[in-house]
Specification:
The structure holds 2 protein chains of 2 kinds. Chain A folds into 2 domains: 2-78, Beta-grasp domain (Ubiquitin-like (UB roll), Roll), CATH 3.10.20.30; 87-155, Orthogonal Bundle (DNA polymerase, domain 1). Chain A has helices at residues 24-31, 87-94, 104-117, 123-129, 141-155, and strands at residues 2-9, 12-19, 50-53, 56-59, 72-74. Chain A is built from 5 helices and 5 strands. By secondary structure, chain A is an alpha+beta fold. In chain A, 33% of the residues lie in helices and 17% in strands. Chain A is globular and about 45 Å long. Chain B is an alpha+beta fold. Chain B has helices spanning 12-22, 33-38, 74-79, 81-86, 88-95, 100-105, 108-114, 121-128, 212-220, 224-228, 245-261; strands at 5-8, 25-27, 46-49, 59-62, 65-69, 131-134, 138-140, 145-147, 150-151, 159-165, 169-176, 183-191, 197-202, 209-210. In chain B, the strands form 4 sheets. Chain B has a 5-stranded antiparallel beta sheet. Chain B has a 4-stranded antiparallel beta sheet with strand order 11-12-13-14, sandwiched between helices. In chain B, strands 1-3-2 form a 3-stranded parallel beta sheet, covered by helices on one side. Classes of the chains: A alpha+beta, B alpha+beta. Chain A binds chain B through residues 1, 3, 19-23, 42-45, 47, 50, 53, 56-59, 62-64, 66-67, 69, 110, 113-114, 129, 131-133, and chain B through 1-6, 8, 27, 30-31, 34-35, 38-39, 47, 49, 51, 75, 98-102, 104-105, 179-181.
Chain lengths: 158, 264
């Protein structure tokens, strides 16, 4: 069965007819070629596929594309402006908040949900807020530092 | 994912009619159902999406009860000023479910209808003696949770809201499975306005259940020591690679004591 869905992706209106079974992450990656959103575990555990749905972090591997109809979706590709990294992306680079980088898009998107609620998060708040995102390289320490630095830069409008 | 039919329902009546016609399943946030379908642990031929139904939304006081609409998301409930002010234990419970992403999508009604043996919401429903309101009537909490993934709901019956009586005191404490974030054991303790005590346990058996020995002890003395002194029988409790029945039995007493201690 096909369904016609319309949504905004990174500020761009998108309309498509897709199979009802299409997951949001499949729609983003396969139909829109936005491959920055990664599929890690594909079972809703690892958070690599995290995107913002109306500003809130969700796991796009556990949501049907049709469930996002009418919503504003933001992926990692929607953050940089005119070739300049978003402050949260820049902070991950500065703090060495990644090694292989596979989890990073999901980490950054979750960090943005967190900072929207906690503009100046302490370490514990960051660790709890990123509970749904797994990293198998870094040991998380530099990720926590990156989120705090990114939050500070965002407060300064950087 | 296998192929299925998907209908976006415009109203509860529309959703019920679709479910009756197709034998399908309602889709709320999908945080259990979509994952289960990907693994083919569930294989409904039709999904009826409830997310566009305005009458399933909202949080309101009705007499002495706090009524939460079925498709309210965990994160919304955790953040709701009405919930924090009226039954803070529910806001705490909602804020501890899964992780942020799951809380942003998953719904209270979906969790209750699913009756996962380790889910948090069933403990609140049973612990507060809540009423599960559906398109067909009302269910008392006692008797609603029948077993593992099994409730008293009929196949075309849709939860519309949950009415929680406002207690004098209530607290929920869970021991989290660090991998799944579900409750290895979770205990909801409540003292009603008339002083009656209810204790509901999740994660320890095929379905949430009330713990009579703890209720009796806490009715006599609502103290952490009274909870600690109760010896919980491991008979009938679940054992798996995460915890033995004896370990779960021990945790029930420990968590009940912590819940009571948090209220003093």
């Amino acid at each position: 069965m096909s369904v016609t869905i319309a949504m905004s992706v990174n500020g761009r209106p998108v309309e498509a007819t897709v199979d009802a079974r299409t997951l949001l992450v499949e729609f983003l990656r396969n139909d829109l070629a936005l491959t920055g959103t990664h599929v890690g575990c594909d079972t809703g555990q690892c958070g690599a596929c995290t995107v913002l749905l109306d500003g809130k972090a969700v796991k796009s591997c556990t949501i049907l594309a049709a469930q996002a109809a009418g919503a504003k979706v933001t992926t990692i590709e929607g953050l940089a402006r005119d070739g300049t990294l978003h402050p949260m992306q820049a902070a991950f680079r500065d703090c060495h908040g990644l090694q292989c980088g596979f989890c990073t898009p999901g980490m950054v998107m979750s960090a943005l949900d967190l900072v929207a609620r906690h503009p100046a998060p302490d370490e514990r708040t960051v660790r709890e807020g990123l509970d749904g995102n797994l990293c198998r390289c870094t040991g998380y320490h530099n990720i926590v530092k990156a989120v705090q630095q990114g939050a500070a830069a965002m407060r300064q409008g950087g | 994912m296998y192929a299925f039919e998907l209908h976006k329902a415009a109203s509860v009546a529309d959703a019920a009619a679709r479910l009756a016609q197709t034998g399908g399943r309602p889709l709320a946030g999908g945080q259990s159902l979509v994952g289960a379908m990907k693994l083919r642990l569930a294989q409904p031929g039709t999904l009826v999406d409830l997310s566009g139904i305005a009458e399933l939304r909202g949080i309101r006081k009705e007499g002495t009860a706090l009524v939460i609409g079925a498709t309210m998301r965990h994160a919304e409930i955790a953040d709701a000023a009405d919930v924090k002010a009226t039954i803070p234990a529910l806001a705490d419970l909602a804020g501890g479910i899964g992780d942020r992403q799951v809380r942003n999508m998953g719904t209270i009604g979906g969790s209750i209808a699913n009756s996962d043996p380790a889910a948090c919401w069933p403990a609140a429903v049973l612990g507060l003696g809540a009423t599960v309101v559906t398109n067909k009537g009302r269910h008392a909490a006692d008797g609603f949770f029948k077993g593992m993934y099994e409730t008293a709901l009929g196949s075309d019956e849709i939860i519309t809201a949950i009415g929680f009586p406002v207690p004098r005191k209530a607290a929920y404490v869970k021991f989290r499975n660090p991998a799944s974030r579900f409750a290895l054991v979770g205990v909801f303790v409540a003292q009603a306005g008339d002083g009656a005590v209810r204790v509901a346990v999740t994660g320890a058996a095929p379905a949430v259940f009330r713990c009579a020995p703890l209720e009796a002890a806490l009715a006599k003395a609502f103290t952490a020591d009274a909870a600690k002194a109760v010896k919980i029988d491991a008979q009938g409790l679940g054992g798996d690679l995460h915890a033995s029945p004896e370990y779960r039995a021990h945790l029930i007493g420990v968590l009940a004591a912590r819940a009571v201690a948090s209220l003093h």
